[in-house]
Amino acid sequence: MTLRLPHLPGLLPFLVPALLTGGGVALPLLYLLLRALEAQPGALQEILLRPKNLVLLGNTLTLLLGVLLLTTLLALPLAFLTTRTDLKGKRFLATLLTLPLAIPGYVGAYVLLAATGPGGFLPLPRLEGYWGALLVLSFITYPYLFLSLRAAFLGLDPSLEEAARTLGLSPFRAFLKATFPQLLPALLSGYLVVGLHALGDFGTVSLLRYETFSYAIYLQYSAAFDRVYAAWLALFLLLLTGGLLLLEGFLLRRLFLARTGKGAGRRARAVRLGALAPWAYLLALLPVLLALLLPLYALVHLASRFPRENLQGLSEAFFHSALAAAPTALLAVGMALPIAYLAVRHPSPASRVLERLAYLGYAVPPLAFALAWVFFSLKSLPFLYGSLPLLVLVLSFHFLAESLGPIRGALHQVPRRLEEAARTLGETPTGAFFRVTFPLLWRGAAAGGALAFIGAVKELPITLLLAPMGYSTLATRVFGYTQEAMFAEAAPFALLIVLLSAAFVGVLLWSERRF
Amino acid sequence: MLKGIDLEVYPGEILALLGPSGCGKTTLLRVIAGLESPDEGRVHLEGRDITPLPPERRGIGFVFQDYALFPHLTALGNVAFGLKGEDRLERARRALERVGMTLFQNRRPGELSGGQQQRVALARALAPGPKLVLLDEPFSSLDAGLRAATREEVRKILKATGTTALLVTHDQEEALSFADRLGVMRGGRLEQVGTPEGVYLRPRTPFVAQFLGRTNLLPGEGRGRYAETCLGSVPLAEPALGPLLLSLRPEALRLIPPGKGPVGEVVAREFKGHDLTYRVRLLGADREVLVQESPTAPYRVGERVGIEVVGEGVALEAKTPVGTD
């Protein structure tokens, strides 16, 4: 006698939206490929052999590697200092060090442009091009690596390091040989997030005029109107992103083979810093100063010079941002719920593919994703092109993954057994959902919605390509004014975005609260 | 995978299903509760076929292995979950009182110890007055010290409320001491059902004999009231004829100074305080037997000893898989 799952047809309401969502991510990307292959054979050869491609590839890769290196130099020691040492106030420092996440790349670039060079309040030459982009991207993305490494340091099994010491290794060698290998998975997953941001960044490189694939795609699309070449550049960028994903997956599998146990419950003894403490504070304050206080000072300082008569534009942009972001949040949660439900309750190869697709929509550089949707909608849904619903739809597909995280986490807190317990106590499946699942899930869903909302408010390239004519949001205003070097005009828009995004960190912390 | 299980639980009794992990005991409980549907076979409750009913309409309580308490509700809220009507909180309080948890009624599951959660889970399952309550390894997450006491308490509560209970466990001591009757499962089959004494003293298959306590399995030749084996002639609990497999408990054997009976050499000695188990290799036969002795037995490893049969052996139904009746 074999057993089957009861009530399989009950899965249908989950399966249909989940499949639609998967299609929404995958179809446009396929269409991008078709579109790129439309070129005449001669033109195709010319496009593929352009020397410019190699320059762009070189620029993109140097920026990627530079950002990975600089974020490591920042995040690794900071994660160590705030977890394994006796540094006073390390919890507070850790929160401060996470806050630069609230600054979108284009705001970082804006601050750098406004603060330096002629007219800037810092007596420094204007930092543009590679070094500017490297600094901005590193200082706003290092928190991802920092958080990942911190979690690893906290979950570390100290007995391995102790075992190494009893086998005769010096403290430093023990760290290198016993502890560091345990950190590698966290380092890699941090690198993946930072790398995806560096590859996908559009705002920073275009404002600082550093020619990477993203910047070149935008130029081809908006200025040169060479859409086929833009499609090809987007494909190159997609390949690069795919390569990064595969490399990370490959390395992670190799590394996990070497790991045997999970971290123990015991905490490691704090390392005493002694005379080194001032240096530790200095290092910790560097990013706080550069990525938090400097931008805030610049924004407030410049906002005070904002022409009053533009207030109308500010409220209009805020309204436009909210009008796009609120339905995006609802839709993203609506799509994330069935995918998370399938992934957690009915894990199968198919549900895993769906979940991967959702994450793919997030990992794909937003500019390439937006371009794919421009082509796709012009061909298949021309009546939607240039409308608010299309913008909302594409934003939802992109930010779906941000909602997925907290919802998935919350669903894991509602083991199937709890629903079963409710059933044996006389509840129908629907009753069990409302009395047990939902009360445990709503916090995660709310957090997922908030994250998608904030993400949509900060988002730039998708909005630039897909917003209706004349529909300017906070983000596009900052971008537009900064391109024209109208720094005072841009300031309140940027300030509003940063304040909204600061709520991001708060929402994350709140959603992780347990019963 | 369950194969041809035929099991009847009588009103008011506690029946324990015992088996190694993966033998299908939990699946059987889930089928009875309606959490999984069988491809074949029926489930009857008080003469009514409940196979097509969803779990909420079966009136069967379930105590999950990890208790599955609702983390967002207090102890009282958990117990009141399955109750309806104006007086539901009052009834929930009474149910909590029965398990001695009145003081903790406003705590959330996260603020309760394992034993306390266990009692709330039991109160929750019993509160709606189910005809049958199913318990899935209910004591396995408790400390060894707490286990025996909780077991006794739960048994008292079940008996006081007159609830019929079906418990699954892999702990033989638990099954023997907790249940009125017990069934031994293996590989999705029910091998034997009976009173704890009956199953322990009269195992029907080698698996049952070995799973409930330790035993010596010896081939022999039945001669009616006794059987001829390598230990000489062994009295049988039930008369049997022809070749057979014999289960002979270690306590049915005793060590004596080597004489004319079977002789062996002590291979290992396991002192357990209240008793002492010897492993003895028989001379002339390539076979080891377990002998349980009093803790004062003087024999050391390497010594020659004689073996005397002082108890009865049980003839097993070798090889043929056993259905039940």
Structure description:
Chain A has 515 residues and is an all-alpha fold. Chain A has helices spanning 12-37, 41-48, 51-84, 90-98, 105-115, 129-155, 158-166, 171-200, 203-207, 213-224, 227-258, 277-303, 311-345, 349-363, 366-380, 388-412, 416-424, 429-458, 461-466, 474-483, 487-511, and one strand at residues 3-4. The two termini of chain A are 40 Å apart. Residues 1-9 and 257-265 of chain A have low confidence and may be disordered. Chain B is α/β, with parallel strands linked by helices and 325 residues long. Chain B is 23% helix and 32% strand. In chain B, helix 3 crosses helix 4. Chain B is elongated. Chain A binds chain B through residues 1-6, 413, 415, 417-418, 420-429, 431, 435-436, 439-440, 514-515, and chain B through 1-4, 27, 31, 33-41, 54-62, 64, 66, 68-72, 81-82, 84, 108, 110, 124-125, 128, 188.
Q: How would you name the oligomeric state of the polypeptide chains in this document?
A: heterodimer
Number of strands of chain A: 1
Task: Work out the helicity level of chain A.
Answer: over 70%
Quick one: biggest sheet of chain A? none
Order of helices and strands of chain B: EHEEEEHHHEHEHEEHHEEEEEEEE
The overall strand count of chain B is 17
Strand order of the largest sheet of chain B: 5-6-7-1-8-9
Radius of gyration of chain B: 24 Å
What general form of chain A does the structure show? globular
Mean pLDDT over the residues of chain B = 88
Low-confidence sequence ranges of chain B? 320-325
Q: Report, as a whole number of angstroms, the end-to-end distance of chain A.
A: 40 Å
SSE order of chain A: EHHHHHHHHHHHHHHHHHHHHH
SS-derived structural category of chain B: alpha/beta
Q: Could you tell me which chain pair has the largest interface and how many residues each side has? A: A-B, 27 and 40 residues
Q: Report the radius of gyration of chain A as a whole number of Å.
A: 24 Å
* Residue share in β-strands of chain A: under 5%
**For the residues shown, what is the average pLDDT of chain A?**
83
Low-confidence stretches of chain A: 1-9, 257-265
Instruction: State the helicity of chain B in percent bands.
Output: 10-25%
